[in-house]
Structures are given as structure tokens and as C-alpha cells.
Description:
Chain A has 314 residues and is mainly alpha-helical. Chain A is built from 14 helices and two strands, in the order ααααβαααααβααααα. The model of chain B has no long low-confidence stretch (mean pLDDT 91). Chain B has one domain (2-265): P-loop containing nucleotide triphosphate hydrolases (Rossmann fold, 3-Layer(aba) Sandwich). The interface between A and B is medium-sized, with 22 and 33 residues. Chain B: Keywords: ATP-binding, Cell membrane, Membrane, Nucleotide-binding, Transport.
Amino acid sequence: xxxxxxxxxxxxxxxxxxxxxxxxxxxxxxxxxxxxxxxxxxxxxxxxxxxxxxxxxxxxxxxxxxxxxxxxxxxxxxxxxxxxxxxxxxxxxxxxxxxxxxxxxxxxxxxxxxxxxxxxxxxxxxxxxxxxxxxxxxxxxxxxxxxxxxxxxxxxxxxxxxxxxxxxxxxxxxxxxxxxxxxxxxxxxxxxxxxxxxxxxxxxxxxxxxxxxxxxxxxxxxxxxxxxxxxxxxxxxxxxxxxxxxxxxxxxxxxxxxxxxxxxxxxxxxxxxxxxxxxxxxxxxxxxxxxxxxxxxxxxxxxxxxxxxxxxxx
Amino acid sequence: xxxxxxxxxxxxxxxxxxxxxxxxxxxxxxxxxxxxxxxxxxxxxxxxxxxxxxxxxxxxxxxxxxxxxxxxxxxxxxxxxxxxxxxxxxxxxxxxxxxxxxxxxxxxxxxxxxxxxxxxxxxxxxxxxxxxxxxxxxxxxxxxxxxxxxxxxxxxxxxxxxxxxxxxxxxxxxxxxxxxxxxxxxxxxxxxxxxxxxxxxxxxxxxxxxxxxxxxxxxxxxxxxxxxxxxxxxxxxxxxxxxxxxxxxxxxxxxxxxxxxxxxxx
Lengths: 314, 266
């Protein structure tokens, strides 16, 4: 593989890394299976593309995308905490609604940023950096985001969000409104996803209505790969794992594409990675994806109990 | 300190699963009272604690804490004044977080959570001192994840967490029932020490009749959602486990065969 492909994987891993951080925030920290991600990613891209096309500063577009992403997360959270919609469904509802909203924002299914000023055209103009400009920019963004998240998760508020994901009853008995914490976590998670959508749109020079499809599974696959490689024994390691996982995932994708796999089969491959990871008890034990497996197991166990009982009676 | 005034609670009213949990419970707990609550399964003991904690809203009646009517306060607001320890050691702590993080969360019970440092150095010192009092060696393991501790250690930590920001009232819901006898004795002993140290007003549900008579200064017996016995002072001192069993029998109107109570009474 040539340097440019390695460089490309690294760039993509960093830019999509913000999305994986968002998935980590909702799925792992908050233990909330949030499917808003698919919609929020496209939302970030759509807002950014339209905002830049209107002749605005690309960095402002990034900020705007994050705010919109946070709002999307808030809506999912309000559906759950206010209207008592199940977590999984609340995310799906927002995701589907966002499809229409994203089309409204873009006005068409695809917006090109080819001749526009983006944060990447700005760094590509710096000749000193050569081909490393986008990587350095991605790295800079990721370092800032990881750093902020690392500090946030150790504040009073951040610790309460983590405790809400870990043991809701306990943290409520310690006087924390867990509904508020879920809103905070979902807003941050989806702001990060939208940030990633914004970066990716500017990186590849277009926003597309379908670009967020399957994003949640790509994010999960990245988190799983990262935690298997780096571990999650401390907060810092867990965050590092997310970024490493994202880069490794994008590299694997580049490799299989190089080997001649059709790009249209990628989503199948990604799903399989997640299924295999969740199927292995050892991996599962180490990663402990409670929201994904436990509920299914509980259902299976209750079914088992009912069977036992009926067989005993019989 | 705590007044329950004619509290009624019915679960699933009108449905096939209708269950009357509390039928007119009136209880006046004085400051510093340590009340043990006994009764067979379904007597309403846990419901009583949950009604005080605000997990369930009462149907009728009033809950008054320190002259404030808290009947309509949601759980997380009441939590500012109430420390709780559950029966299951896993329920009182966050397994994926460290000992110091759990304690820091508990220390801020009832206070708003802001974007400030979650744990300060001064607090770490406080945690070490308090953990040392438990005598379990946890003071040297501040950054250990709670999930790695044993059930007894977790329950001891939960007792400390429930009391580290001094509550107006402490609720213990069979908090030693899930532990092995030796660990249970240790946890109970340190609970009593902490209660004495801070003169905490306490409600403690227990299935162990001997424990109910030896711990605290007052014993309340519940049956089918009512308080049928309220013992304190010299009268309580004269009461034996055998007496309590007899009263149980009278109350339920038939020979008392609840094995858990029989076992724990022996």
C-alpha cells in the first residue's frame, strides 16, 4: 500500500474519530443505545455544506453543526425522559425525522463544496505541511475534543453522567436528576457525531443524504476494536481506545477495498465485525456492552425460567 | 424528625395485580431514634422505606421530614436529606467507577452538579480517613474500581457513601441480608458505629429478629400494610425473640411458619 493510502486511513480515522467518541459517549458512558447517530452525522454535514455555500466561515459551520447535533440529541432524550419512549425507539424516531430535515436543509440529496473554502482547503494551502496538512488538522481537532471530554468526564457533572449510565438507581438516591444527565450525555454525544459529519463533509468536499447510513455500526465496530486493542481500564485509555479503534477500522476498510472488495459490501462487513465481537463471550466480558447484550440475555433467561417452570409442572 | 401520617399505598389499583402495600401507616420518629422494622414478606416494610425515599408516591397521607411536607417531592430532591443502603450490594455503588469517584458522588448528595473538579485533594484526604475507619484496607485503594470489590466491601462502602454527607435520616433496607454471616456482622457493626458517631435518625428493615431487638432503641412490627406493634423503652428490653414470634402468630392468626424468620430467630 502506498503512503497516500495509509495517510488517507489515518485522516479518515481521525475525522470519523469524533463520531466514534460520540458513540462511545452514548453507548458506553451513558449505556443508552442511541440510534440518532445516523441522522446526526448527516445533519452535521448538511448544516456545514449549506452554511459554507452561503459564504460563511467554515469554522463557524463546524460550530453550527455541533449545536444542531446537540439539539438532535436533546430531542431523542426528551422523547425518552419526557414521553417515556424506549431508548432504542427514541433514537430511531429522531433519526428518521432527521432524514427529512436534512433534505430540507440541503434542498437536494447532494451538495458539493468543490470550489468552496473549507477548513481543509485552508491547510492544504500551507505548502510547508506538504501532504500532512489534513492529518495534522484532524489530529489537532481530535486532541482538543479528547482533552475536553477527558476533563468533562471528571467534573461533578461528567461523573454524574457516567454514574447515570452505570447505576441509575444509585445516582438518583444521591440526589441527581437522571433525566437531566441523559439529556446532557445525549446532547454531547450527538454534538460530537455532528462535528464529525461536518469535518467529513469538508474533507471529502460534499454532503450526501445517505452518508450517515450505518454510521452507528461503524462507530460500534470502532469502539469494540479499540477497546480490544487498547483496553478501557482507565478513562484516558478508554478515550485513546476510541481513537485507535477508529483509525484501525478505517485502515481495515481501506485494505479490504484495496483487495478488491466492492465498496457496496462494506456495511455487510461492518455488521459482521460487530456480530462476531458480540458473539464471543470472552470479548463480550471484557467489553461489557450491557445495553446491547444484557437485555437480550435477560429476555432469554426469563424465557428459560418459564420453560423450566412449565416443564416441572408438566 | 420524620412523621408519616395515615399513609396509604396501593399498587396497580383496580387491576388483577392490585396489591395494598400500606393501609394507613402512622409513624412518628424522633430525632436520634434508630427504628428497626420487622414483618413477614409483603408486610410493607420496603414500601414504607421507598415511600419515605420518594421512590413511590403515596396515594393518601403525608410524609413530613423535619417539619417540611415532602409528600410531593421527587426522589432526587428528597435525596438531599436521605441516605439509603439497599439489600443488594450491587445497587448502591457504580461498578465501573473508582472508590474515590463513588465517594465524591456521594459527598455531593443533594448539591447541584457543576463543571467543577469532581474530586479535590482535600476530599481525597477525607475519604482516606473515613475509609480507614471501616478497617477493610480500602483507604489504600482509592483508585480501584468498585466492581473489583467483594459484596461485603461494596456494602460497607455504600454505608459510608450514604452517611458521608450527613443525612437527616438513614434508610437501611435489609442491607446485610445478602452477605455471608461474618461479613453481615462486620457491616452491621460498622453501621452501628457510624450511626452512633453522627447520631443518625435511622429506619432499618431486617428479617433477623434478634438483630431487630439488639440494634437501635425502637422496634416496629408490620403486618399486611399496618404497624401492629411499636416497642421502645423498658417494654422493648423485656421482649425476647420468642415473644416476637408469638406476636407474629397472633397477628397473622395462624401458626407462624415463615421459615426465614424462624431460621434467623434461632
